Amino acid sequence: MPQLPRRTFLRGLGVTLGLPFLNAMLPTCRAEAEVSQPPIRLGWIYFPNGMVRDDWTPTGEGRDFQFNRTNAPLARVRDDVLLISNLAHDKARPNGDGPGAHSRCGATYLTATQAKKTGGKDIYLGESIDQVAARHLGQRTRLPSLELGVEPSRKEGRCDSGYSCIYLSNISWRSPTQPSGVEIDPCRAFDRLFGASGSQGERFRQRSAARQSVLDFVAEDARSLRRRLGPTDRRKMEEYFESVRAVEQQIDRMAELPPIDLPASGVALKGELSGYRSTPSDVKSDGYVEHIRLMYDLMALAYQTDATRIITFMLANAQTNRAYVHLDIKSGHHQLTHSVGQEEELQKIDQFHVEEFARFVAKLKSIEEAGGTLLDNCLLTFGTAMGDGRKHDHSQLPCVVAGRGGGRVETGRHLNMKEETPMANLFVSTARQAGAPIQQFGDSTGRLAGFAVDEGQ
Q: Entry's Pfam families (predicted)?
């Protein structure tokens, strides 16, 4: 059969379903193969309130390294991750602006820029690295970028020692004055990935409300395509459809459950939590774990179908005081960072987030793509702009990059950088590996030495 275009869709009434990378999309000659490799997907996963540094910092360097207690769950994907030590975010420090470490942590993480300290509408920050990459790469996909989260954002008011609340709940910024916003509803995120636009969009919304599967709407198109595919591609299609249906079923299950009722962050700690509520009481779910896993699964579908190549995901807002009840922790997360002798509770929260990230990485590794795996063609950064949550500092930041970037990044290592290396250097390197030709970003001083095969040691 003729080569199948990479941008092939299955269509139905109000539905546009992208396809995974199939063998039928591979070019027939070597010259075409060199320009038809799977694209590099970029992702940034943000976790709040820093980590307990003593339980995070790995020992050894290069391939001869040992995981610590908190990052031990990454052992299952050791050969697919790169641990990076001694990165820093100087612009998350006060630099004359006084208290407000959490607001600056969220604001600075992907912008590497000092946030204007204001509680009014005159917010000012900088464009984030995901949006820089989207400007260069986003026109090639259905969605230029996708911004996900699990806690609602607050668009007005003063939080965290006089900073606008908007800094706490946005890591993606389209411009210095325009945050990208965060989608916390899995159903709406799913609709963005697979819903048609224009007049067909209303039909899709009706389908969604009636909980009809998108697979039913594209069944005829799918049957026609199957007849043109070989056995390996037919198997890939079946596995992909199973993943889509599994996500739909999870969304339906969440819709049937009552809203969760978690403790609010109403405890004022030195004025930092004034008026700020971080628990997502309006999200229908049977728990936080299911919510973040569903968002991770949506990320996998988005990457697999090339709906977008650029995703950010906030596991919680920057000053969340969520109580991790599934870990039998009843005190709020932020409150714990200000308490003495609570290292064990904090470490359990840290390790939980690492375990879920490792699960996501393993899922991407299980998805075949062009002779390798989907993970092979990703660069996913798991990190934050706060080092030790108890100290509220911004150096020695915990950071992991998963995926090989199409073979350009050597994983299975611990990269121990010089102290105070700007995290923005990593952002320059990851964006360049995906094809965004940037030389400088934020407070970067160059590329991250030793990160990619063409960037030295």
A: HXXSHH (PF07586)
